[in-house]
Amino acid sequence: MCGRYVLFSATETYLGAVSGLLGEQVGVLPGADLPAVSWNVAPTHRVDVVRRWNGTPLLGPARWGYPAPWLSGGSGVLFNARGETAFDKPAFRGSEPCLVVMDGWYEWNAKRPFLVTGDGPLTVAGLCRVIDGDLRVTVVTGPSQDPVAWLHDRMPHVLGAGDAAAWLDGDPDTLRALAAGPVQGSVLATLTTTAVSRAVGNVANNGPDLVVPVPDAHNGGE
Description:
By secondary structure, the protein is mainly beta. The protein has one domain (5-219): hypothetical protein yedk fold (Alpha-Beta Complex). It is 13% helix and 36% strand. It is built from 3 helices and 15 strands. A 5-stranded antiparallel beta sheet has the order 3-1-10-11-15, with no helix packed on it. The protein is globular and about 50 Å long.
């Protein structure tokens, strides 16, 4: 967790959402080739992140996952970082905080895929670092909390107003405390889960049909 998510909103929607959280205008990195809409974002794919460039928060592309040649026969990536231990792991040394934007993430429970969404784009804590000339990003996770605690024992560290700015601009002590602590504020109350097609399990499948609700006990069926 989290190993798949969705990016389907317009760039302007992401800019507005993160600007509202930070209390300052977020722009687009000049010349950035932003990722296309995707209903099935997977590790190694290009994703949207916000980080500071010369003091200004800008949205730009990054590749999801830090190279981890010791995993999966040399082709593995670290696409998540446990908030409780991320700042003690050599793999994440030298990273800087960033904000990962998404419209929701997929999680599996009893082999059934579910999509977790809020009342708009979600802003998640991330760590990023340039590796071999490529900006790489990993999603910070923490223990799952209600109303999605039933789904999985881990969840992305979703940021609300105040916490987003504290994460993006925090000193090392602040970052450690935020990463290891629970999700704060009203953002948790906006999260909902929807059972979706098992087709999302194949990363080659990518279309809006992946997020169409299917009958399940948790969303009015079976």
